[in-house]
User: Fold these one by one.
Assistant:
Number 1:
Amino acid sequence: MLHFSRWKIWAIVASCVLAIAFVAPNFVSRETLKTLPGWLPHRQMTLGLDLQGGAHLLLEVDTQTMVKERIDQLRDDIRRVLREDKIGYAGLGAQGLSVQVRVTDAAQVEKAATKLAAIPQNLSDALLSGNRVVDVDIAREEGGLFRLTLTQPGLEFRTRRVVEQSMEVVRRRVDQLGTTEPIIARQGGNRLLVQVPGLQDIDRLKDILRQTARLTFHLVEGTGQQVLEGTRPADTDVLYSQDDPPVPVLVQKRAMLTGEELVDAQAGFDSRTSEPIVNFRFNTSGAQKFALISQQNVGRAFAIVLDKDVISYPVIREPILGGSGQISGNFTVRSANDLALLLRAGALPADLTVVEERTVGPGLGADSIAAGKLATAIGTVLVVLYMIGNYGLFGVFADIAVVLNVLMIMAVLSVLQATLTLPGIGGIVLTIGMAVDANVLIYERIREEQKLGRSAISAIDAGFSRAMGTIVDSNLTTLIAGVVMFILGTGPIKGFAVTMGIGILTTLFTAVTVTRLMVALWVKKVRPTRVPI
Amino acid sequence: MRLIKLIPEDTKIPFMGARLITFPISMVLVTLSLLLMFFHGLNYGIDFAGGTVVEVRSHVSPAPLAKIRSELGELGLGEVQVQGFGQPEDVLIRFGQQEGGELAQQAGVAKVKAALGEDYDYRRVEVVGPRVSADLRRDGAIAVVVALALVLVYLWFRFEWQFAVGAVLTTIHDIVLTLGLLSVTQISFDLTAIAAILTIVGYSLNDTVVIYDRIRENLRKYKKMGLAELIDASINQTLTRTIRTSTTTFLAMLAMFVFGGEALRGFNFTMLAGIVIGTYSSIVVSAPLLIFLDLRPGGGKGEEKSEPGSAPAKA
């Protein structure tokens, strides 16, 4: 146990030097780091939101509405295909995830079956598995009864797609905020995690993420209180303007254009009134449509609608051919900016609900870092003194190993870019306390073996080898708990598990291998007859 | 240099004889803890109960707690807890889940901000809605159970089954006592408390495994020795180590408790208590349990294995 080959010594020393090299960037400011040559390690530990301050939001994508819309659409489809061929039916209705209909004329049941068979869609899943997913299952029962049910794979496929699309839109919106390194990740089936380090104004973030931001352009059929009176045509809707009091606006249900055809939107100022406005530009096909519609409808008003709110309803004075336009509507500079941002990022395919929010101010984060540093320093000093008091020179060996251990944990965190949180600092401090356990186990064993009459070298040898099994067993059990915390835990649990887990692995290196090397070198130099433990 | 020998080395304390006293003590403590949890309950934090925590720093020192309390009491948010927190100008505001789903939770924070006005810095705002808190409760429970199960499996592979069962029973004993303590102190039971409990599980197992390892070794060495005597010897042989390691860990966590800031105060306190509980239980609960579990010296799986130390010696 006490013999080290030359290359092994160098390997151990090299690991220690590497660890110090990788931890070094954490002690230099970011500005200095930029001036250093590129081959030097330059990664710093990533600090969690609780240490650097920032906003954390957990959003739930509303997939229920998507399901409901699918059911409604399915019912409309059934009605449409049956009507097209003048097939008589009754009892068309939705129940849970299925829609059922009864074809009344027995002679037409076969025809209805072939017609209905065209409704299910193939959802290609080619990228993932090449499997084809059919979204509707058709069951035929006695008496011309058909039951069309949304399939589970189809729903899962659609849910996944809605969540992925939402994530993309959320990412584009958050990126527009111009913050550094936001984290946007999927969590569980239908949740999105958004973490924006350094962001304090969480209300603005929520405002930006909560809006669906579906922009549509509709022709206006009439405005004012009179549109509420009497019957209105089936293909129109009453929406309200954002004036105070809101003005009812009767619009055509069908949108003539949507925000999907926008290529750009920017906030600006109206050249005459100096009011904040949003300038937008359509893509080629959008521009053509817009030109055509505006030519045909000079003198009529069209409504610019954002999520059911009429932002403005200007009158078309002349054909708009350039494919660009502006939206004015009692904006402030900020609301114009936010609207432009939302239009650029696109509409969300589903509503998002904030289900968890956590914000930490920069002051608290800085305080926590200071407290963490102080606690780590004092914890280290206490353990160092205690070990020297108990084991003298061998305590010093253990102490060098402990300090090296802390540096190694920080080096691994920097290299892996794992996030350090306040509970993570707690994990480091715990490691400091528990790391010397390996040394205590070894030293106690050496003391026992020496008492049994072994020579110094033989006692040291036996101490290291006998203690090893215990060290592995005890550390592995703790590591199991740590791995479970890391995999199953969230937030503070995960942050703590990361440093504790890394700490156990580095402990096995520093407290066993490095200490053994130091003891071996000491034995070689001093040739002791007794171990001073 | 003269080394400090606070703990006598080579002790011969009759732990097994004392088990007739220590076992009933543990039983009483466990029963008390269970009763406390049942009747007094845990102080569920917002992670598990849902609700809102707002930490503010007043621009005037000390913070006008009474004024804040009366102002926020009128907002119709249900019971609002307002308490000092660390520095005299720091205030922690907590209120429970609001009626009306996820959006209502958000509205609560807006009301508090409007009522407090401009005289405060918002250091921390946490809102946990009903759906997330339900998930966190479930995930926390799963984490503890899975950790225990895996440890049981690992120990079963490495030792005889009595050791595995003994270690897990000891760990459950520790968890129950820790929960009892959390109930008495009404320290907020949240995600960090789960992290603390899992760490105590790891720590206590660590301690238990060290003693078990020695018992297993002695079982092979002294085949004729009675089990009680053998366990006693094993505990005494490892006692110095047990106490020294507990001391260093305790010292390190004590630094974290005193200097580590207000945010983790509850976690650190739980850890300190856990170290004491874990050390106590590994000495007077886990080892004597082996007798009740009918461990026979010299029998079972351990015998087939190689000599202690020979396998790791290759490493």
Note: Residues 124 and 130 of chain A are 7 Å apart (CA to CA).
Number 2:
Amino acid sequence: MKTDRELIQEFQRGSDAAFNELVRRYLDLVYRFFQKITPDKMEAEDLAQTVFIKLFKALKKFRFESEFNTYLYRVNVNTANTYFKRNKWRNMLHLDQAPDTGYVETSQEKQWRKEEVWATVVRLPKKQRLVVMMRISQALSFKDIGNILDMTEGSAKVNYHHGIKRVKLLLGNNK
Amino acid sequence: MNFEEKLQKTFSSTSKMLDPEQFINNLTSTRYTQALKRSQAISGYLALIVVLFVCILGFNELDHGAILMDGSYYYSTSIDSDQNEDSEYFDDLALYIMEQEEDIWMAFSFLDELEYDKIVNLMEEES
């Protein structure tokens, strides 16, 4: 089986088949990421498509300064950020009308929807938002988050700590 | 259950994944559509630039020497000099006709038809 690097190099030499192989390899990862961002499957598919279109353009000039995996996460996060900015007001205004596809809890614990959590996360400062987004949606380690976002592991932990504290406050976890 | 686990559970998803081949087909057609739109937009901009360039050139050509004064256009001396040259040419032509034509009254009536009435003065100046 060819490595990511080999596939990218083939793609840079003009092989679209190599790019399609990368799509097959990473489609699940990308699609799962966006499924956690939005309850709408079509929207998640559109966002995944946006990521691969960006990759198609960017990989032609990819210099292997970072791992492809890391780069892909960055593209995912940036695309999600753009999506949140675009839908910030819509998410805030139509929160009550959104379909409930998130966590259904039968106990007395407070129940949240994805939209509700993301509407809270997007209100965080940029670094905190990115770290919290990666941690709660992908369950990545702080070391990986640090690599992806170009920060130290300690900085990722601190940002997460402040971010999650604020999310907790905004979601009213004390209920 | 701690707060982080609760959040992660919120995002747990069991929905089925996409068909990769279908996705690649959609992706390819979207890429081609975008590339087509981009090239159309570039062609459109280039055409617009050419049209603007031609318009500016045409306007400059038409506007050549025109001077706007009190809401009216006046023409510069370069056009006046052209008109003077034309006038001199007609004067010479008229004198030539008068000299060459045997029947001077025929020549007078011909110039009269052209509404050229400077011939008498010219002939006096010549003599």
Note: The beta strands of chain B are 66-69, 72-75.
Number 3:
Amino acid sequence: MLITRRVEFSASHVCRNPRLSDEENRKLFGPAANPHGHGHNYVVEVSLRGEPHPVTGMVLDLKELKEILNRLVVEPYDHRFLNYEVPPFDHIVPTAENIARDIWSRLSPRLADGSGKLHSVRVYETPDLYVDYFGDETCSA
Amino acid sequence: MFRVTRRYWFAASHRLHAAPLAAEENRRIFGKCNNPFGHGHNYVIEVSARGPLDAATGRAVDTALLDGLVARQVLAPFGHRNLNADVEAFARTVPTSENLAAEICRRLKDNWAATFPGDWPRLEKIRIAETPRNIFEIEAHEIE
């Protein structure tokens, strides 16, 4: 069974790889590379997999998950310029993909075992674009 | 591994009518969707692709390339069209959202390699909301 909790944060970012030239960055990322950055209302959905506890009927108390998400995701990310204020985005491009992976790495030590195991992190950059990350599963190429 | 999903929409009209069936039978099966002059929807399409991260860009899918593919193969041919009258695939096939999902999936799959020539990303699935309450989903491997 999957349970999902949603949280939101607002942040600014610029999609720019410092190892590439301005021209290459503009070609790759378009207006998202504009040097002073821009922002989004990010929506994050975190899903845990587990079985309901026989007594409580819950996989994990969603209030507890809310508290974990607020502490580990919303507090460090909210109302920040990701590239300047939230490592590892000082050296990793803060695309939705990389944000999903960073959130996974922040959460997975806390949710790796126990009653609800981390299943996926979904990051909406806008209502029209979102990314799902399922951890470091290998490519079945 | 990441799944990237992009949402698009287009407006189109259709009429659910199976030519081999009698008028009465069509009315019984399709109800008001069989009304003779057709009707329309704002179709919302979600296209999901799966792939590993590109180290240089930090992205799994170049959404600008995906936007171009979807614009050419879906939004331009279907947007503001009568699906029965204007789209060859529905000349003899009922334009239900099941069939529409399969046709969109087929178009994207057939043209995928020209847009994304490498191993990744790969088309994973198409999801169509005909209305906010009627939703249809097909996985790319279901289309030959």
Note: The longest helix of chain B spans residues 97-115.
